[in-house]
Amino acid sequence: MNEMANTVRSTCPYCGVGCQVDLIIKEDHITRVEAPFDVAPNYGRLCAKGRYGMDYVSHPSRLTYPMIRKELGSKPRKPADLSGFRRASWDEALDLAAEKLAAIVNGNGGDALGTFCSAKATNEDNYLFQKFVRGVLGTNNVDHCSRLCHAASVAGLQITLGSSAMSNSIAEMKDLEVLLITGSNTTETHPVISTFLREAVVKNDARLIVIDPRQIEMSQFADHFLQLKPGTDVVMFQALAHVIVNEGLVDQEFLANRVEGLEEYLPGLESFTPEYAEEICRVPAQKIRQAARLYGKANAAAIYWGMGISQSSHGTDNAISLANLALLTGNIGRPGTGLNPLRGQNNVQGCSDSGGLPNVFPGYQPVDDPEVREKFEEYWGISLDPEPGLTTMEMVDAAESGAIKGYYVMGENPMMSEPDLLHARHVMENLDFVLYQDIFLNETGEYADIILPAVSFAEKDGTFTNSDRRVQLIRPGIQPPGEARPDWEIIQDLALRVEEKLDHKESAGFGFAHPSRIWDEMAELTPAFQGITHERVEKEDGVHWPCPTPDHPGTPYLFTDTFPRGRGKLTPLAYRPSVELPDKEYPLILSTGRVLYHWHGGTMTRRSKLDDIYPEALVEIHPDDAQDIGVISGDWVKIRSRRGEIEVKVLVTQRSSKGMVFLPFHFVEAAANILTLDARDPQAKIPEYKVCAVAVEKS
Amino acid sequence: MNKDKLIQLTIDGKECQVPDGTTLLEAARSLGINIPVICLHEATTPEGLCRQCVVEVEGWGRLAPSCITPVEEGQVVLTESERVIRTRRTILEMLNASVDLSHSAALQDQMERYGADPERFPGAKKRSHEILDDNPFYVRDYSQCILCWRCVQACADDMQYTYALGIGGRGHDSRITTFFDNLLPNTTCVFCGNCVGVCPTNALQGKTEHLLEKGLQHNEIRAHRRQERQDKRRSS
What we know:
Chain A is of the alpha/beta class. Chain A is 32% helix and 17% strand.
């Protein structure tokens, strides 16, 4: 059957592993997905999502032409399905969008707009998006869902090292000696990475420490499994540090040469004894000692973490507590060591790298640094806002207060992913204008005034940057449906129209003929990318940044000789309990997360055959709690929090510990974020998705 | 074994020097000699199961499976001797007698290359199995399974570390199966499809392709899926 098939090499659009895939295309459909066996990072391995979840691109509900809300301007706006919109031409839709955006800029200033770029779109799409927002709309209010996943890891690593990416590569994983996995359900959220980590344990005798509130699958491979109480991470890692310091397992030479802050750090550590941790974290002190010794005595030990660390009101502290461990023991800057936040979205690294953040231009160059700003002003020929903009949730706040009048949302779904959804939806109802650009009408699009249909990863050129900073290509293999266009083309067309409406004498530059030329402009302005071109990525099947010159080989692991901030900084920490703890009325802890077969807000996977194997939300409840509530697997329960309530089916399992329930957030009919609370980490502004108090009753 | 030590040998009359520990197959490949394989795959551990890669080593009584036989100093090796050719042809004929190879282009090519007679064993009984269609992602047609073991290896310590697949039965009744013959959704299977990725025949096939081959259109496949979901809901 392969006679008429066409094969296109691309990058998986799901998670941050960035698996290389061969799309086997027949009659304009992806009929099979294979993985090349000789190419990093996955070497022939895929997971269910990558191999069987690409069919969403051909789903009949793809957006195929621009649309305009029928009842434009009526307030409060109500969520509408496609019947609430009428078909429009690209010219009409873009002209109207430009007019509305320009009116807000003219009337209230650019800061009255909130914009969401996309961790699912390419580097080139995102570079152009933030260029449009900064250089034309005149605001730094640009952010994306990275805020909701690893903002705390970024903040913590910025404070301790001055950098914010995964320090080591996926290629090193199978040769690890000791590894610590915490707050990452790796087998379900980064399935292919989990195979390399298991390879290290099973084949190469690596020793594994798992620290997680849930009995996740990786715990079956662990030498030490520490099932801590949710939200007590800082105490746990400080206690590990306590043992390492007290038993003389610190790396004196590394501390002397590469680290500062030891004197300020040590006094605060004294109270964090393993016995204290046992009390707070409910993990035996002896187990904490054993784990600390294993990590502390290793020649090389690496730490991997996920949302369990970052999605917390003390997420930055959590990340710092991990960095402290690595700095104390010298486990960074060499192969097999490192601090490795496993990134969620396929291009969440790249979207941040490309300047999709309110405080930095591409390559993390601060907007409030005059020298940096001058460089961009000169290149784009326009003066730029020196003040960092608002983060995603601050944009919700500003919309509520009326400071923000309009949203431009590209390829994101804040109406599923924000905490305290009922509130976020309410805020959206009162905006003056919502411009929405995506491949499907998702829960956010239902609030749009204008819908611009974009193309999927399988229909365009560009690059994604995976979790280990590897820039990789995607290539078009099928025809876009209807009139759908690539994001970069839409942004370009829109930007030119807005510039005209704002009477800009000269364009900031939106005349690109191909994404590779957009990349070139970004690389020219970003030292860490200067050695990378599409042509080179094509030739080498991917390049790790930083890569400052064309003859630089790229950088699989960071910090060999120095940290970006100079010395690594040990940072004292105090224990802050989670914001909302269980009480009589709401006696259980709710933790939210993901399952193997679904992806985030479900826009993609629920339109895929993946939905056939996991068609509905299930809340995990411990057998003891289930008995108290009087339910068995398959029963329905009502879960209530102070924000709202949902109904969902029960799965009784010992995976979650007693006193805690776990709920995936993929399912709109039981949207977990109706329950979660909008408590934020003070530095990273990331919400506390992993701990809130709920009551569960049989329904 | 000392990887720094070089071993000298002769393959099909050509001299070569390779590091200690190299297999005969790798040594032959370094000379550009193409030894046919069936069970060997770059992602799985060589097991020497199919014996299609056998070669003749001077002075040895039996043929050597080149994928798992390390080189030795001074060996004289023939990769296409008459005895080797006869063996390969017989292996293909026996395989063809017990398994439906019609969907495997690679094996058809080998049949042709070695002049294998599809009718060599007219009385032989082909293994026949019902197609197993127990999940949304792929179907299993073990009538086409040559028992190369790659799927079992991929599921276990060569790729996925999930251990959902194993071998059951004996002799002619040997087959790939799951623990207690459970349906895949009731096993540890996570539907990564890494087994499908290494399957040399169509024994493991994506369901979309399976339905397309049966003549369904893409919209009909969607309808088929919807129906299956409804049936499943009703039965549970």
